[in-house]
Every structure is written in C-alpha cells, then in structure tokens.
Amino acid sequence: MSASNKASNIGDKVKGKVKETAGKAVGNERLKAEGKGDQVKGDVKQAGEKVKDAFKH
C-alpha cells in the first residue's frame, strides 16, 4: 500500500469519526450517519489495498 493511499484511507476514517462525533454532539442524525459512512469507506479502501498488496508479493 502506498503512503499516499494509506494516508487517504486514514484521512477518510478520521474525517468520518469527526463528523460522527459532531453529529452526536449537536443531535444531527444525518451528520452522524455520514460520519459512519466515511469511516466504512476508509475501511473498505484499506482492505482493498491490502488485497492488492497480497497479490503483488
């Protein structure tokens, strides 16, 4: 996994956690759901990168 892809995936997860926390704090269910979605997106992208790496070696 390249460093830029890894940083992007971690960035998605962090952005998602921030959105989720903000949504909880202000009682905004939509923002909270978007945050969870961003976290899942980061997890899925990270898993895809790991699969690609496994086939490279």
Automatic annotation (TrEMBL):
<feature type="compositionally biased region" description="Basic and acidic residues">
    <location>
        <begin position="12"/>
        <end position="57"/>
    </location>
</feature>
<dbReference type="InterPro" id="IPR008462">
    <property type="entry name" value="CsbD"/>
</dbReference>
<dbReference type="Pfam" id="PF05532">
    <property type="entry name" value="CsbD"/>
</dbReference>
<dbReference type="InterPro" id="IPR036629">
    <property type="entry name" value="YjbJ_sf"/>
</dbReference>
<feature type="domain" description="CsbD-like">
    <location>
        <begin position="5"/>
        <end position="57"/>
    </location>
</feature>
<protein>
    <submittedName>
        <fullName>CsbD family protein</fullName>
    </submittedName>
</protein>
<feature type="region of interest" description="Disordered">
    <location>
        <begin position="1"/>
        <end position="57"/>
    </location>
</feature>
<comment type="similarity">
    <text>Belongs to the UPF0337 (CsbD) family.</text>
</comment>
